[in-house]
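It is worth pausing here to work through a concrete case rather than discussing structure prediction in the abstract. The textbook approach is simple: state the sequence, then state the predicted structure, then interpret. We follow exactly that order.
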Amino acid sequence: MSMHKILPTMILAFAAMPLAITAQEQGAATPEPATVAQVVDKIVAQEHAEMNALRKYSPLVETYIQTVRPDKELGAVPNGDRYFLGRAELDKGVQLEPLVKGDGGNGSSAGAVKQKFLASLGNMFSGEFLPRGFLQMIYLDEQGFDQQHYKFSYAGREFLGDVRCLIFDVDPLANTGKGRFSGRIWVEDQDFHIVRFNGSYGGSSRGSFYFNFDSWRENSGKNEWLPAYIYSEQGNVEYGVAKHSAFRPFKSQTRLWGYDLNREQEAQTLSSVEVEGPRVKDQTAAGNGYSPLQAKRAWGRLAEDNVAAKMQRMGLMAPYGDVDKVLETVVNNLEVTNQLEIQPEVRCRVLMTSTLESFTMGHTIVLSRGLIDVLPDETSLAAVLAHELGHVMLGHRMDTEFAFFNRVRFEEKDTFHHFGFARNAGEEEAANQKGIELLKKSPYQDKSGTAEAFFAALQKREKEVPNLISPHLGDRVPKHWTTASGTSDPQAVKTANAIVALPLGARIKVEPWDDRLVMLKAQPEGAVAEYEKMPFEVAPFLVYLTRQNGNAMLNDTGTMATRTDSDPAPAIAKP
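Step two, the predicted structure:
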């Protein structure tokens, strides 16, 4: 990375009753007031159209579950976890194709640690949880969502972010069968898309259960509302008490992304190709050849680019954007204060998964979205990046066979057998020591107590969240860190109301259509009780909804929030 001045980062900013619907509010001419039945007809028709439209997509689906146990001070804490990553086949209903299988196959080259991880995935959902059941929560009812099967009761209106919504309570009619949805729906008031639904399916049996869930959809540029986030919990998770003896109380997050995967952009690019005439280039300054060292560096960079492009096309790596620039700013600060001039320059990318991991691909540093989410401050981020920068400085290279394009042509299900960037214990220890040296000469040297507290908290929680800290492609985040202050004692952080680690989803918002990442700007939250800190824990989703019609994606604070009935211009008013 070229030498520049130290830059600040963005990580810290880190029925038949008549109801009045005006023509302006509905977005079309409405000569007569609509009735509840007429509005519900539009909602039902739009939901059927939505389900049909979703059949053409195959997004990535990630479900992470934490079981909980009671704690005298914290109410409930993690006590085990499960993880699933796969590709949805929505044209077949709610079918899933796992991206990793516990078959212990022979194609992996990532070593014993990776093989152990793959084997653990084989039984992650056996017996207790089924990934397909969580994916099913993107639909209210695949069969029979209409007024012949459900009673719709108007319950008011509310803003979810910038989107004004009508609220209906939905209950299945008698004798309409099991598995019907019961709960509340939020419907945007322009085209009557359901954007959120909260409740459960009815008719649990002795051998299976339906769980409570809160399902959110986000607007894409094509005016489609795509399933994006699902939060589920069962049992009294605050006190670790289960309602059924068949399972422990749990909390879960399901995320969907990668609906487009650049297909539309690529098609538009191809259709607009222009043929240009020959250009005359002055080669005087550049010379007329490249040295063997330059060729070697270019070859390594090509291998990095091929792997990154492959993973981005699959939806496993986010497109380059603002979050990557934040990471690169911190790397730049480390380089400048240590008087480093690294060629080729160091770049940063983000893995889309929630599991905590980091690794290097040559001179490209990769951090997972989940890891960035839980880091409490810039200093902790710098500690992780310093460790990976140590790998770069020590010449821990990647396999340059990926510079051959045929080496990145394989079926998606084989991804984790072809890619593996884990380091051996000796390389990890050397990178640790080099990272500590870099931090001691960095702008973060006097604030390293928060990083030490983060690593200590991770070590304390490792037995409760083994799947969260199991890497897909690289290395586990180091747990034994003695940073610039010379101590790894978590008591080094004595500040009032200190938060050693954040819950999942605290930093980054994912755009499900094109996988863009947005860094959320934290709003002041006042005093935080001990039980509210939730380090490395699953939290409910509260999504700030917007329409992709040129409006800002987030409000001026970048936070997720709701507006209530006190807002003007109601979409539906009681007579």
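Step three, interpretation. The radius of gyration is 26 Å. The longest strand covers residues 75-89.
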